[in-house]
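Try this one yourself first.
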């Protein structure tokens, strides 16, 4: 996969988007792959969202947080993103890659389903 990477990212993961991630919520559940990138502390960052092969970009505020912080027996991390042009144009079946570039900037890169650079199907988050 390294020959098809969007850009050099130090830490990144990939997932194929589902309908519920796009319609019902503006966040991704924070499974181990995301937790490996963001850690266990709440973080508020600016991320650069883009569509691979397009010059369109959107700098968006995102939050990494523990949704069940008050519940000692359950843990559920989430990655919330503000609505933006890139994600408004995402469809189920598209891939999203989330990671930090070598300059430390958070990147969220959308690979449209059917495009030459689409990375295949990932039903759960995987290291990229």
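Now uncover the answer:
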């Amino acid at each position: 996969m390294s020959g098809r990477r969007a850009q050099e990212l130090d830490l990144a993961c990939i997932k194929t988007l589902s309908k519920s991630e796009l319609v019902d919520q503006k966040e991704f559940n924070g499974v181990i792959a995301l937790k490996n990138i963001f850690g266990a502390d709440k973080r508020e960052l600016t991320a650069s969202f883009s569509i691979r092969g397009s010059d369109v970009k959107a700098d968006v505020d995102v939050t990494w947080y523990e949704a069940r912080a008050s519940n000692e027996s359950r843990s559920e991390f989430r990655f919330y993103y503000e609505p933006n042009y890139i994600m408004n144009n995402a469809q189920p079946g598209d891939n999203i890659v989330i990671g930090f570039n070598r300059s430390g900037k958070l990147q969220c890169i959308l690979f449209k389903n059917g495009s030459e650079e689409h990375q295949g199907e990932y039903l759960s988050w995987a290291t990229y």
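Discussion: The first strand starts at residue 9 and ends at 16. The radius of gyration is 14 Å.
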